[in-house]
Write a sequence for this structure.
């Protein structure tokens, strides 16, 4: 038998034992030695999940949660990053965690039947991890009807630098999950027409179509928000130059204006993009505790459920938030620079959200906000972008996963 001539065994720690014609060689497994994992058998019931922020959230969380809800007998592995200590409490006990960019993570990927990622797998692809025959790669991405250009669609980065690794990763994708016709079109471009697009909705948006009483209670309890307060969330997106001067929102004036307009008491929350979260202390210190920092709250969708009014600039979070028909405002002080730099898929003025480039105009937009007009425009915008989110996307993705695993296990039984 082949196994008597050549075999590879991973000890679960840091070594791989290679057996060649009876000669046993123990190799310290590093990222340079990852090729040996490709000789390990694929486990048909194993699924590896990874979220682009490192937290337990986004589309991948809700797919994983649906698998757990259905009590399916799968081995669920989450690849996590250095920020895991901030999010450890959020992961269910019946999933396994491995650290990103380690030999253990490589081994889990190399032996899983299915990969589910919400971001391109740059580091793994650069380090030589490629999908094996009979493995399935599901890419959910992390933007819903997003306005800011991404990948090869961007106007501020050379096309050659955006193609090499993304192209290599895209070639491995089997399925791309989309929530509508607009999303499908840009997914085709940024993934170079690889992967079958499944227009079935975004799992992370299922949350907006359910009874969210318990989720709201959870957010209020964890953030220690008084029950008599309503929530304003300010969630600006990333600037590649990491310049915080664009986040010059006048928090006090905004809270006063919104409280007056909507006749309630409000508190304001701040959520920075994960890629600039390390700079948050230098930004927060000048506000003397007048805002609540929720940058490290693991699940953005839970925050959006609890939020009553959202303010952002170019973040796709507002295009999730709008599914609830709650008021949203755009505050983009660097609008012209951003449009000429990274670029937008469509004008800010074409969205239902009132747009301001300074605090004075934002206050005017709040004072003049027409909710009935806004609701009509949200409905028309969603129809124009072909959005199909309906609360059942997670179930559809899990049905796909079940079919893949059932088929693989049936073949396995036949060959035994």
């Amino acid at each position: 038998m082949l196994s008597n001539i050549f075999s590879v065994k991973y000890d679960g720690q840091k070594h791989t034992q290679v057996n060649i014609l009876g000669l046993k060689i123990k190799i310290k497994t590093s990222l340079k030695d990852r090729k040996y994992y490709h000789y390990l058998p694929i486990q048909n019931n194993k699924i590896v999940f990874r979220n682009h922020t490192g937290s337990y959230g986004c589309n991948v969380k809700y797919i994983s949660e649906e698998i757990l809800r259905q009590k399916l007998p799968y081995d669920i592995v989450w690849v996590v990053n250095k920020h895991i200590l901030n999010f450890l409490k959020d992961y269910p006990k019946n999933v396994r965690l491995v650290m990103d960019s380690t030999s253990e993570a490589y081994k889990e990927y190399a032996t899983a039947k299915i990969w589910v990622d919400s971001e391109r797998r740059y580091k793994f692809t650069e380090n030589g991890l490629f999908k094996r025959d009979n493995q399935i790669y599901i890419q959910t991405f992390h933007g819903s009807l997003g306005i800011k250009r991404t990948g090869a669609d961007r106007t501020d980065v050379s096309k050659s630098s955006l193609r090499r690794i993304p192209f290599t990763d895209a070639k491995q994708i089997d399925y791309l999950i989309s929530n509508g016709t607009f999303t499908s079109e840009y997914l085709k471009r940024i993934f170079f027409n690889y992967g079958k697009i499944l227009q079935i909705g975004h799992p992370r948006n299922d949350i907006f179509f359910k009874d969210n009483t318990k989720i709201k209670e959870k957010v209020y309890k964890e953030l220690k928000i008084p029950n008599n307060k309503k929530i304003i969330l300010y969630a600006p997106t990333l600037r590649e130059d990491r310049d915080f001067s664009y986040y010059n929102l006048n928090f006090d004036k905004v809270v006063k204006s919104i409280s007056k307009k909507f006749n309630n008491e409000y508190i304001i929350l701040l959520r920075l993009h994960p890629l600039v979260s390390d700079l948050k202390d230098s930004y927060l210190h000048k506000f003397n505790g007048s805002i609540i920092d929720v940058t490290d709250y693991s699940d953005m969708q839970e925050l959006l459920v609890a939020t009553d009014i959202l303010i952002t600039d170019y973040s796709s979070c507002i295009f999730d938030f709008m599914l609830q028909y709650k008021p949203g405002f755009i505050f983009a002080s660097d609008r012209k620079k951003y449009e000429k730099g990274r670029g937008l898929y469509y004008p800010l003025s074409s969205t239902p959200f009132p747009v301001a480039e300074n605090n004075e105009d934002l206050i005017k937009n709040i004072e003049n906000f027409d909710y009935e007009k806004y609701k009509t425009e949200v409905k028309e915008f969603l129809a124009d972008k072909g959005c199909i989110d309906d609360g059942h996307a997670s179930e559809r993705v899990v049905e796909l996963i079940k079919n893949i695993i059932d088929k693989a296990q049936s073949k396995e039984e036949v060959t035994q």
